[in-house]
Structure formats: structure tokens, C-alpha cells
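Reviewers of the previous submission asked for a worked example of the structure-prediction workflow described in the proposal, so we include one complete record here. The input consisted solely of the amino acid sequence. No template or homolog information was supplied to the procedure at any stage.
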Amino acid sequence: IRHARHLNPDLHVIARCAHLRDAQALRNAGANVVAAGEAEVGVALAEVVTAGDERACSVAAEHRESIRRSLYNGPIVPKVGSKSRAYKSYLGK
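From that input alone, the workflow returned the following C-alpha cells.
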């Protein structure tokens, strides 16, 4: 990731790891977005468990993001303060 950033600082890097314990290292290396398989399986299982609830779609989406924040110890979206064009594009700026 660092080498890719060196070659192209505006590159939008999306990384995947198997375990949550590796997600922060990928963020620290410069990944804009990190998805950990372990966390996403947890989110999917939580959706199955709560599927019987008659919640509105927006409430379900908020619940999903709450689970992700809890699992990842923070948001999985790009780090605030990134100056790359890719990050600004991600934010719609």
C-alpha cells in the first residue's frame, strides 16, 4: 500500500483482510477503506438474527453501521483529514 501511495498519492486504496486484528495496520499503511472478512461475517449474521424485526430500511442500515463501528473500533470509511483527490471524490467534494 505504501509503495502504491508513493507511486500515486491520489490512488483510492480498498483493502481486504481476513481478521479484524489486521485492519488497523492496513489503515495505517494508507488504505482508504478496509474490509475484514471476520467482521463482515459478523454483520451478516447479525442481519439474519434481526431480520424478523420490522424495522425501516434506514434503521436497519444504521444498525449495520453501528455493528461495523463496534467491530472495527471506528468507521471503516477513509480517515478524516486525508488530502488526496480520491478521498475528496469519495466524500463528493
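Strands lie at 14-17, 33-36. We consider this example representative of the routine output the project will generate in years two and three.
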